[in-house]
Amino acid sequence: MSEQRPQPVSDPTTGAIPHWSHGDDDVLTVVDGDGVTVYDDDGNAYLDFLAQLYCVNAGHGEERIVDAIAEQASRVAYVASSKDNDARSELAERLAAVTPGDLNDVFFSVSGSEANEAAVQFAREYTGARKVLTRYQSYHGATYGAGSLTGDPETRNAVGRGAETTGAVKFCPPLTHRSPFDGDTPAEIARQAADHLEYVIRNEGLDSIAAILMEPVGGTSGAYPAPVDYWQRVRELCDEYDILLIADEVITGFGRCGEWFGIETEGVVPDLMTFAKGVTSAYVPLAGVAVRPEIAAHLREEGIDVGQTFAGHPVACAAGIAALDVYADGQIENARERSAHLEARLRELDAHDAVGTVRGRGLLWAVEFTDPGTGEPYLNPWIESGDNPVDDVIDAAQERGVLFGGGRPRTQVIVCPPLPVTDAEIDRAVDALDAAIAATFE
Fold it and tell me: How large is the average pLDDT for residues 84-112?
């Protein structure tokens, strides 16, 4: 490892059960962090190029957020979500200043899954329709409601194993890699994908569809941006057929794509927008839904009969206010400026025969691995079992001091560093990934 930091000895035999585990995983124990670097319980340093779960946008150890948390906890640590609180109100106002268009009202939640469920509930209540359209290969959460919205079959089937969930209809994404459409150019694929979406709308029944829910840039499904003009066409379809457009900004929000929100890179304004993760840089759990004025007015007039104990937690809201200050103090600008260098370095990996596609936007990228003889993934865990070389790439990079994530499906590596990353850290991380690919495939 490139650096050692002494740490207190921790007991590895705890009662905690890890999420997304397969029973025999060797789980890394992280005990400290500073900027783009985290440290394990042996003092080994790792560049955190997955921002833990695509959420520590401001970097680790940001004292402005830590101080805000401590100050709020010393005043009043908890206020019921049914009551007003100064930190909660201030964060809502601050969010209204940076959200796109007229998304000026916020309903707070706890996690991205619950925010997506709330957005769908609001859309159904506002429109009187019941169906929500989401894309195959999407990820919107793993609770029962959010699991039904998710297009990733591994997650959806795991959630629905005991009791199937309903209310969501899937359509095909406008992929430019192994596309279900046969267009020769991104523009042609965008047209075909939008025509397909309109076909689904017409065949589901116009009065039955409440909303279309999509990520502006695919997150863990592969960091894929839509072809040019696709989002504009989706917005037009929603307006034509009186369908609400929901942007899932759980991963793409708060500077990840080089703007405050990923949807801003597409030039459209949704009717509802969900957020989580980066709103506090994940220092404290917080999520929410930003809505247009007419939807907010409807919710206030009709009332909301459900809620969550920890929604809009004052400590989390204080962390959110501080995080917004941190992002505005050069971090979003840095993300925008570093994105070109990250892209350039990642595209150098095309020199490996095993690298099929490199794609992304801002500081959210994917490197997909395909067999050069067939153009297909070496192993697609959604449809087959066996040893997955992508796991070997991730493990080999970790041995070289860099943490990357695995996408859905795990045919790709997700690259997602905190916003204050430097060019030198990008170079170190991509060099480690380059060496890990060579060690695995060559």
Answer: 97
Across the chain, mean pLDDT equals 93
Which domain-ending residue is among 304, 326, 348? 326
CB neighbours of residue 88 within 10 Å: 23
Asked if 229 and 359 sit in the same domain, the reply is no
Q: Decide if 1 is inside a domain.
A: no
Rounded Cα–Cα distance for residues 65 and 418 (Å) = 15
Confidence of residue 422 (pLDDT cuts 50, 70, 90): very high
- Biggest CA–CA distance in the chain, Å, is 63
Query: Average pLDDT for residues 245-256, to the nearest whole number?
Result: 98
Between 154 and 340, residue with greater pLDDT: 340
- On whether both 96 and 214 belong to a single domain, the answer is yes
Instruction: Please report, for residues 77, 99, 121, 286, 385, the alpha-carbon distance to residue 92 in angstroms, rounded to integers and kept in the order given.
Output: 18, 10, 20, 12, 46
Q: Which helix (H) or strand (E) holds 272?
A: strand 272-275
* DSSP-derived secondary structure letter, 330: I
Same domain for 193 and 164:
yes
The answer on 302 and 367 residing in a single domain is no
**Same-domain pairing of 109 and 233:** yes
φ/ψ bin of 242: left (φ > 0), alpha (ψ from -120 to 50), beta (otherwise):
left
pTM over 0.90: yes
pLDDT for res 398: 98
- The structural domain count of the chain equals 2
Amino acid identity, residue 283? Y
Asked if the model's pLDDT at residue 15 lies above 80, the reply is no
Domain match, 111 and 131 both: yes
Peptide bond into 314 cis (omega under 30): no
Compute the half-sphere exposure of residue 309: CA atoms within 13 Å on the CB side of its CA.
0
130 is a domain residue: yes
Which of 364, 370, 378 has the alpha carbon at shortest distance from 349? Answer: 370
How far, in whole angstroms, is CA 7 from its chain's centroid?
Answer: 31
**Partners of 274 in the β-ladder:** 248, 289
Host domain of residue 237? 63-326
User: Which of these, 228, 212, 217, 224, lies nearest to 178 by C-alpha position?
Assistant: 224
3-state helix, strand, coil in the chain (%, to 5): 40, 15, 45
pLDDT above 60 (res 12): no
Q: Could you report the per-residue pLDDT of 305-332, keeping only the tens digit for each?
A: 888 999 999 999 999 999 999 999 999 9
